[in-house]
From TrEMBL, chains A, B:
The UniProt record lists the keyword Cytoplasm: no
Species per Swiss-Prot/TrEMBL record: Paracoccus laeviglucosivorans
Top-rank taxon, per record: Bacteria
Pathway membership, UniProt: Amino-acid biosynthesis; L-lysine biosynthesis via DAP pathway; (S)-tetrahydrodipicolinate from L-aspartate: step 1/4; Amino-acid biosynthesis; L-threonine biosynthesis; L-threonine from L-aspartate: step 1/5; Amino-acid biosynthesis; L-methionine biosynthesis via de novo pathway; L-homoserine from L-aspartate: step 1/3
Organism lineage: Bacteria, Pseudomonadati, Pseudomonadota, Alphaproteobacteria, Rhodobacterales
CDD domains with a match to the protein in the record: AAK_AKii-LysC-BS (cd04261), ACT_AK-LysC-DapG-like_2 (cd04923), ACT_AKii-LysC-BS-like_1 (cd04913)
Name this protein carries in UniProt: Aspartokinase
Amino acid sequence: MPLLVMKFGGTSVADLDRIKNAAAKVKREVERGYDVIVIVSAMSGKTNELVGWVEATSPLFDAREYDAVVASGENITAGLMALTLQEMDVPARSWQGWQVPINTTAAHSSARFVDIPRENINAKFAEGFKVAVVAGFQGVSPEGRVTTLGRGGSDTTAVAFAAAFKAERCDIYTDVDGIYTTDPRITTKARKLERIAFEEMLELASLGAKVLQTRSVELAMRYKVKLRVLSSFEDTDENSGTLVCDEDDIMESKVVSGVAFSREEAKITLFTIEDRPGVASAIFGPLADAGINVDMIVQNISEKDYDEAHPGAVTDMTFSCPINQVARAKKALEDAKTAGTIQYDELIIDEDVAKVSVVGIGMRSHAGVAAKMFSALSTENVNIKVISTSEIKISVLIDRKYMELAVQALHDAFELEKA
Amino acid sequence: MPLLVMKFGGTSVADLDRIKNAAAKVKREVERGYDVIVIVSAMSGKTNELVGWVEATSPLFDAREYDAVVASGENITAGLMALTLQEMDVPARSWQGWQVPINTTAAHSSARFVDIPRENINAKFAEGFKVAVVAGFQGVSPEGRVTTLGRGGSDTTAVAFAAAFKAERCDIYTDVDGIYTTDPRITTKARKLERIAFEEMLELASLGAKVLQTRSVELAMRYKVKLRVLSSFEDTDENSGTLVCDEDDIMESKVVSGVAFSREEAKITLFTIEDRPGVASAIFGPLADAGINVDMIVQNISEKDYDEAHPGAVTDMTFSCPINQVARAKKALEDAKTAGTIQYDELIIDEDVAKVSVVGIGMRSHAGVAAKMFSALSTENVNIKVISTSEIKISVLIDRKYMELAVQALHDAFELEKA
């Protein structure tokens, strides 16, 4: 029997009516001849309620107990979804993480999959059940404790099941109807993509397009799981949404597939640091220890060489990080200065920046993308503060107030509105 | 290490502050040198919310999925209680039913304990944990599905753990401060009992004193678990509340320990039925099949013997049942009449009755209790409709409007206000 994995996020199962709506989509696939594994999130708001209780109880909570409490939300949805399907005459059974079992590491609140044995669920399919409704976001540790995968983990659960059960496809039902060339709230020219390559989706996911969790895309890429993103709230068929797939499955790809952006960026510059081997690790070691997600890093030769106050060679170091980590980053750097492991004259923080990126696997074989991007921004008088590139992505840090303008200019320059 | 079981009901863990208050009581016992197994209910209101969702989804729900959904409430409290204890520097770990495991039958929503292996929890105690917080009301079936014990099941969980772990005592913390000679809302003379025998408590529990679930008392009696009922909302010490214990542990017991009552009764009389062997089973068989909890049964020789219309011997049959089962009982009897398995001339339903009972193990060795009871009621002009007796209980059915008067009169007659 061919098998599908279908995942419904929190807004797609927010109340009993929406669960019914989601169940109808599942039933349709069963009628098409599929066995279905449904992965469900907690009803939207539920996880926040549970997290709120845990944090109010114990600010520095024990992650084992956090997981035990928070995973309840998905268990409730799983049971309700199974009941809803039964009401529609679809034989369904719910599965909590330990029942499958979804074996994970013991890294509570950020557990990773170890393996997902197929025996128990397949035995139920063999008995005539058509649907296994699995609580997303959770698993069980080697010690038999409930684990969770971290926020957005239900996407990853879905992909892991699709890989383990060799599903024909993994459909992620969400509150948008696919992956767009950019956020339609920024430009009405934004166009839904029919297909996007895993690598592109990975860059888009990590750049702030919050449709899919990054880890789920990584996992899908590794196991070549065909991922489809589509809307819970529209009628959908086999051509709906956006297919995230291997680049070989994309016939003709454009040079640039999308423009991503992130408002939540900050730029931190250390002025006048020693220019010597080991200085970068002296700076970024303490930041890593403090859990700072350092993103773009730029090092410039400073003008200040041969300054009397600084007889050795000196330089400046600039990096970006999420804006809500700035205070922690500042403290880590100041502590390192106090401890004498790094020196700098001045620490400048710019919290008014945004990151804009163009992404496309076509860049690999096309020169001139960076030049076109910089020219488009320059035409709009957008000053570039930091540049960073990867094989399929060019990112710039700019003043936040120019962000929307920059996205629109780049969307136009690369003609993303055209299919 | 001596071990205590402490159980906190829904109102005792209704919010984070109350959980904190309950945890303080646990901590005090740990400081006294006990290992503690804490059994928790769902935060009050939670179970109703979950049940509401299940019933709205699927009126004739699959009990396996009902159990999976509804048991989540206790899991949440267990995790929050463990976190609260940790915050108070008490090493605590939460346990869901499958983790212990609490092995039950597969009778979903009314499962019974099969066994509770001690190994896993004892291993944690050996590691230095002082408290195991166990989700009440739930277990796991032989098929690895979540089961629940039915409403009030957390009391039963507590007693079962006390029996399995040979606890020194099982303390049931609730919203009343003990067992009273009768409901203090009926008479201010009601007095809290220091001790009460299991048998008496069983009669009181099944007669409508809703402090303890009947099954939990049965289990405590069978395994000689010392049960204590005491208040979550007061300062308590080792002498607080009421001890439910073996009658041998009660030095001098009164003839009557308490007066119980139930408003929710109805009386059903079948007039003119055949007086022949097998007629009772022809009547009560269909009632049992319809799930009617028939309580008191009285059969009278009818005046109508030798009536022309009824040439054989005839009689009347009266029984009582919970008022919310009257409609179902009526239908079962009418169906049986239609089917021809029973005959009767008339079916009279009286929904304006109440049951009042006096309970006491002292009755076994004292004559005249019934006489004293009937005399007290007669003095107040309360007419008795049905009488039923057991070894340690006398119950009467009376007009509901006399119920409070009857309870007060009996409380006075047996001088229950005196210790």
